[in-house]
Amino acid sequence: EVNWKLADHPKLPKDKVVAMVVLDGWGEADPDQYNCIHVADTPTMDSLKKGAPEKWRLVRAHGKAVGLPTEDDMGNSEVGHNALGAGRIFAQGAKLVDLALASGKIFEGEGFNYIKECFETGTLHLIGLLSDGGVHSRLDQLQLLLKGAAKHGARRIRVHILTDGRDVLDGSSVGFVETLEKELAELRAKGVDAQIASGGGRMYVTMDRYENDWNVVKRGWDAQVLGEAPYKFRNAVEAVKKLREEPKANDQYLPPFVIVDENGKPVGPINDGDAVVTINYRADRMVMLAKALEYEDFDKFDRVRFPKINYTGMLQYDGELKLPNHYLVSPPEIDRTSGEYLVHNGVRTFACSETVKFGHVTFFWNGNRSGCFNPEMEEYVEIPSDVGITFNVQPEMKAKEIAEKARDAILSRKFHQVRVNLPNGDMVGHTGDIHATVVGCKVTDDAVKVILDAIEQVGGIYVVTADHGNAEDMAKRNKSGQPILDKNGNIQVLTSHTLQPVPIAIGGPGLAPGVRFRKDLPNGGLANVAATVMNLHGFEAPGEYEPTLIEVVDN
Ligand code: 3PG
Ligand code: CO
Hints:
Elements: E1 18-23, H1 36-39, H2 43-51, E2 56-59, H3 77-86, H4 93-103, H5 110-116, E3 124-130, H6 139-151, E4 156-163, H7 173-189, E5 193-201, H8 214-226, E6 231-233, H9 236-244, E7 257-259, E8 275-278, H10 287-294, E9 310-315, E10 327-329, H11 338-344, E11 349-354, H12 355-364, E12 378-383, H13 399-412, E13 417-422, H14 424-429, H15 434-458, E14 461-466, E15 502-507, E16 515-517, H16 529-536, E17 550-552
Parallel strand pairs: 1-13, 1-14, 3-4, 3-8, 4-5, 6-7, 8-9, 9-10, 11-12, 11-13
Antiparallel strand pairs: 2-15, 5-7, 14-15, 16-17
Helix pairs in contact: 6-7, 7-9, 13-15
The protein binds 3-phosphoglyceric acid and cobalt (II) ion.
Cobalt (II) ion binds near residues 77, 426, 430 and 470.
């Protein structure tokens, strides 16, 4: 039984309005021309940094500080928001899958036994993101899964790939497909009929999120399940190379293709009696496909065929929905999040972002849990994102609308916590368009100002931070930090997140005098923020939470 009652903070008052602002993809890095935050006009964020040194600091947002396997793992929104909301560091999906593969336990569990039922007579299909980005999936895990499946009796395997270019460099897809082809050739040499069956770019095929655009999932379904796509190739390396030749083509947005045999017949549609594994461990961009594969009743698009398959996720993507029912590795159990505690202690909460980041400040924030804890205490508002565009053509996104919703929520005085995610630094940063990302950073800064002004009006408190780095560095660099140039003197554009720390600033007229950042937590990370915010709401954090970043000195 959880004791939900939080102790009163000995010095800090309750009932202040706290704005909790998460700038997505907003890290801190040395100024240069590829630091879009530096290049952009960002007076509000600049003033927070320059204003009061004891109210601005950096926190770690990558690697072990957010539960990732190594310090070489860049941060991401899932683990970042999990840490921000849960106040503790949980071993995340990447790590849990590593452990299950290393121990071999993955091949002994319920999920694997379930797919194994099909190995005699059916095909094993593996669907997922093909890269070593480590945000949603990892190639080395796929390789181990392939080897293990073959060893445990899979006779016929088909891989449905989604090319990346978002968590890794654009153009790296070719190398990843080559590596996978080698792996599959080795399996064939051992008598396993193993091939790539279909593919497409992650942002155009399958990996939509938060139900922004079901067409994306449908394109994948047509290729993966029905074996239908606008492009047909005999070989996946050739497919990716050819499709990349189109003007403006990139890995993230490659069109769907299927691999066909010498008679032009697709080699790997999904049929009755087959087994399917979605190999991504991260939920947000797999859960839509999981619904299509699992739900008997489904009306998001016409599936044409609904094959009777044994489907498992790499992880269970949604514990509340039990989706999917079968999975290879148990997800982290992120319980007793700050959101749940605060609701039990009378803190009324408003959360808002636009669709592409909506689940970040709700689902991820609440420990991968859909919906509110208590609808009477919470209001979650989703602003519809623009659909079918890349955000470099619309770098403003919905930042202004999000800020205005937050402002109205603050001024309404109905809520104690007003929480938003401002997506621009991240979503525009991922396009690799430096110019547009600079615009996105400026727009973000404007949005922060709107929120801080509202906090000023109601005598509230603000916490401004970020979930991981992205827009502060758009160049791939060598070990000494210099951009890597090609023979024409061009940089390799970094579309991915970074290893950089992120800023956190506190302030506002409601912040009690004497509140400042402690000096004894130089390695503080995102997981320290939850206790900090609980304090600002007038509560002590639970004992097992990572320590608060603030102290109150008498003056
Ligand atoms: C994505 O899914 O868009 C990227 O892989 C990671 O971005 P996010 O962690 O900022 O959502
Ligand atoms: Co991102």
